[in-house]
Amino acid sequence: MIKEKTNNKISKEKGEYKRDSIKQKVSSNTSSKEKDKNKIKENGKINVQEVENKLDEDVVIMSCNSSNNLNLPIIDLKFSDSCFVAFLDTGANVSLIQPSALEKIKEQNKVTFVSRSVRIHTLNNNTLPYHSAVNIKVRIGNKCFSNLFFVTQTNWSSKYSIILGYDFIQKNCILLDIPNQKILIEKQSFGFYEDTPRNSSPSLSADTESSQVRLVNNVTILPNSSRILKLKISDSFTNEKNFVYIPSCNADISINESIHNVDNSGNIITIVENNTSNKITLRKNSKLAQAHSATDFIFRDSNDFHEEPNEILQVNTLTADEITTLRREELNADDFNLEHLNETEKNEILKLLMQNFKVFSKSYQTLGCTDAITPKFTLLHNFPIQTKPYPIPKIAHDFAKQEIQKLLEAGIIEPSTSNYSFPIIFVKKKSDSKKLKFRMVVDYRLLNSVTESFKICLPKTTYILHEISGKKWYCVLDLKSAFFQIKIKNSDKQKLAFCSELGNFQPTRLPFGSKNSTYYFHLLISKCLDDLKGPNIQFFLDDIIIAANSIPEMNTRLQLVFDRLAKFNLTLDPNKIQICKTNITYLGFNISANGYAPSEDNIQKVTKFPVAQNVKQVQSYLGMMNYFRHLIFNYAEVVEPIVNLKRKGTPFVWSENCQDAFNVMQEIILNKPTIRNYDESKPLFLTTDASKVALCAILLQKDGEHFYPIEFFSKQLSPSERNYSSIRRELFAIFMGIKHFREYLYGRHFYLLTDAKSLTYHMNLDKQPDIVKRWLLYLQDFSYNIDHIKGCDNPADFLSRMQIEDVEVNNLFHMGDQLSHSNIKLCQSMDSCTSEIIKRIEERDTKTCHKYFIDSYTGLLMFEIKSGKDQILNKIYIPRNLVRDCLLVAHAPHFGVQKTYDFIKIKYFWPGMYADVKNFCENFCNCMQNKPKRKTITHSIPKHHLTPGEFLAVDIVGKLPRSVDNQNYILTIVDNYSRYLEAISIPNTTSNTIIRHLNYYFSRFGLPKYILSDNATYFKSDEIVDFYESLRIEHRKTSIYYPKSNGLLERTHRVLKESVASISHKVHDWSTSLLFFKLHYNNSKHVVTQYTPAELLFGRRVNISIHSYDDPKYVEDFSLYLYKVQNN
């Protein structure tokens, strides 16, 4: 349909009438035909010149579209000896002719070209380019007609050459007799036939299944925002090199017409805008557009568009000398942060910086500019892409005006009349000040989808860090607005134009956000600094790092870099550079003489990262953690539970294993794993290991007798690799480790440390599998010695159990000062009840206060309680406002009601104490979560052995989540007589580890006669058996599959797990919480013996947190103390 854009309703006074769509206009209704005839008769014949005068520049006069639901009237036009097929389109305001048809006409007769300045628009409001307008005489039958035709730039159909529009129909008073398939011109009639045209107009709309463009996934678009969509085109169009798609009409969303290439999966990318204030959801497979072959379209290249001279000053008119002078004037000594240096160092560095003022810029006007490289933006097609400008937030409006004005004054952008147009957005920048700062960014996503890509090869972060770390002094230089320092070609400026509410502009320098900007800048900085690159100078895009071991050495290297930047006319930002620091942040790591570790900002990001709620968040988390994987031992195996959540078909369930892995990673990063720099003068060691789920390798060097890591490598095994035998997995780990560290190992001798004879085994095989042959063949290129070591001596194992010295355990047993004598005394004086009792005691009211007294030593209010017939116990009266503090301290190990009450009643008293304890313990949330209700089964109490330490029960708890000090198990030892518990955290369950800790126990408590354990392999090994026999200890074992035969230890384990789980703030703090638990467990009254284990083993109570506030009042004689213990 061709219609007028300005108004579809024209007044009758102008001799025109309301025109409708083809569906409404072309009808078989005879009465409608008569009405049309009468109207034309009333208006009379319209002069051609009158029609042409209406075609002015300000009116959009044409829009082209076709519909498959209609059969258009087709007629044959004759010109000299040539015949052309044309169709009548009553919805078109003008008539069109293809350039190929015009060429045939020009060969036979002269044509008259007419000057016309109009804009022709399609139904979808896209401009249709045309070459010119011509007056042509044609014949229908034997009758001649003259009409104005617009010559399009494209041959839009191979079947139809001419469109006869409404101007032709109106000028010649043509009537359509649809039922009889005739056209009536004055008194003559001519026949026509109906046909459904294909590719019949410059904007096509073939409503067939093969040309439909549908949405790939469900998409939600926020109000007044845009989003990139992935669309899928029918298989019939995937063979097209490129095609045009025309979006379906929708008032709520806007999608621009554009031309696209189809990828291998038949998908294309476009941008949709939500024009409403409501959220819009587009469903999968929604039909959003029609696709048409781009071979039927011809478009002008952007170079063909000619701009008119711009009246606004758009180029920086400052000369090179003026820019140099301005750089000198705007640079101040205060721009550099040198407070960390002493006065001599500061003056020396400052002098160097001020002398090199040419390489510093503080404004856009003094920004460097280079043509050392010439960026080129090659598009996959020349179809202009336009998008609507995004609204500028009010809070950023002033910034936008100032920023655009600064860029204009500096000549970085200029006003534009380009047919390309992309919106700008404003992103908040990090700022130390309270004032909001923004960054203006052009949304080039749609342009990037049709821009030819260039592969960029950036240096590995680990390589830079290894090269540069280990020095004493560091500098980091940052280029100011780095991309803006590169000129772009005039022919590419219009392709990068952007629009805003403030106008249309185009860059003259390389913009941020375009697809290949990073590629071209990397080319520039490499060309500038590549020959300076080495152990002391490295760069990653616009961040340059320089290292030295002394200030004079640093000055020399800084001057080298400054000279090279000045040669290329590149400038630095003085406010962002870091000068001469011993500890510096670069690429997310803190670099120092000791090596490099994650920066504080990155540590905060990791520790504050929330638990993932879906697969997308899992991918974000793993993407962040992969940046640190070379710092983490056995990374692949640790995160394996989380990685499994990404597998297709796996339901998303954040399990306990996932949480454990998440916590381990947070703890590792929180402890700042540090990697030392690689030293070429020291020998290299490689150790590898493999499990059923992952393999790992560590590159090591030695400092004296101690290994230190250079880098870690790990890889999760695929399902097929997990089917390898253990010895093949070990060989695979060696192969992958050497392959990963090839840059260090190739061409130099190293030592391979392994705890498996995998190489020897596979080399001696008569028939080696093909994959093993390939691995062994690869290893032949390397020079190494194989050192076979035991698993316990493997540096990998050593690192996995390496003690972390930074764990804060200084306040392990400190519970605060709430129950100090001074605080209790203060609270007693402030409490209404206790203060009243104190007042009556001072007034000597013995009738109501005969059980209370003031302690002469501490000044505290005390309460007398009789214990037995003759014994009287004095206890501190706890005021009501300290009751909760007392309960918290007593319940710190999270024992039950009775044990908590026993802890308190030894020293303290208040009315209703037992009820308060019971209510507090039963409603303590963390405690109740870790103590599920169980049915209590009563068993007969076994007969006790004669003496403490004679009979021991031992067992292992675990495997537990790896603790902060790299422990995985707990070795438990219980004395059967006293119930005294010793619980020791251990990294593994090897015989050597168990024997070492048993010896430690025996050295403190003496040798037992009997040891009871279960039938676990580690308790039946030859080493354990020989160890017991050498000490003449009888080893007894419990019944198989019947743990109740060691019921005392099993019950202790239950209490241990519940208590430690409640005490630990984090799951990996359990080894620290274990110490706190042991102290309180061994000093709590046992239900069987009615004494504490410590009392029975040592003959006395041991102070715990709640009892440690009383100062000793006297020192007892040694002989008297020993007498009491022996006769207890």
Radius of gyration: 44 Å
- Tell me which CATH architecture of the largest domain applies here: 2-Layer Sandwich
The oligomeric state of the chains shown is single chain
* E-strand count: 48
Mean pLDDT: 74
User: Can you count the helices?
Assistant: 35
Low-confidence stretches: 1-70, 196-210, 296-315, 795-815, 932-945, 1109-1116
The biggest beta sheet reads: 8 strands, mixed
What is the top-level CATH class of the largest domain?
Alpha Beta
Strand content: 15-25%
CATH topology of the largest domain: Alpha-Beta Plaits
Q: What's the CATH H-level superfamily name of the largest domain?
A: Reverse transcriptase/Diguanylate cyclase domain
SSE layout and pairing:
Blueprint: H1 22-25, H2 30-43, H3 48-53, E1 60-62, E2 72-79, E3 82-88, E4 95-97, H4 99-108, E5 112-114, E6 119-120, E7 130-140, E8 143-152, E9 162-164, H5 166-171, E10 174-177, E11 182-185, E12 188-191, E13 193-195, E14 212-215, E15 219-221, E16 226-233, E17 243-247, E18 253-255, E19 258-260, E20 267-274, E21 280-282, E22 287-293, H6 320-330, H7 343-355, H8 394-409, E23 413-415, E24 422-429, E25 437-442, H9 445-448, H10 461-468, E26 473-478, H11 490-493, E27 498-500, E28 503-507, H12 517-529, E29 537-540, E30 543-548, H13 551-567, E31 578-581, E32 584-586, E33 589-592, E34 595-598, H14 600-607, H15 615-626, H16 635-638, H17 640-643, H18 656-670, E35 684-690, E36 694-703, E37 706-716, H19 726-740, H20 742-745, E38 750-754, H21 758-763, H22 770-779, E39 784-788, H23 795-800, H24 821-830, H25 832-842, E40 852-854, E41 861-867, E42 871-877, H26 883-890, H27 897-905, E43 908-909, H28 913-922, H29 925-929, E44 951-957, E45 969-975, E46 981-986, H30 991-1005, E47 1010-1013, H31 1022-1030, E48 1034-1037, H32 1047-1063, ...
Parallel strand pairs: 1-6, 3-9, 4-8, 24-27, 35-38, 38-39, 42-43, 44-47, 47-48
Antiparallel strand pairs: 2-3, 2-13, 4-9, 5-7, 7-8, 10-11, 11-12, 14-16, 14-22, 15-21, 16-20, 17-19, 17-22, 18-20, 23-28, 24-25, 26-30, 26-31, 27-28, 29-30, 32-33, 33-34, 35-36, 36-37, 40-41, 41-42, 44-45, 45-46
Helix pairs in contact: 14-18, 19-22, 27-28, 32-33
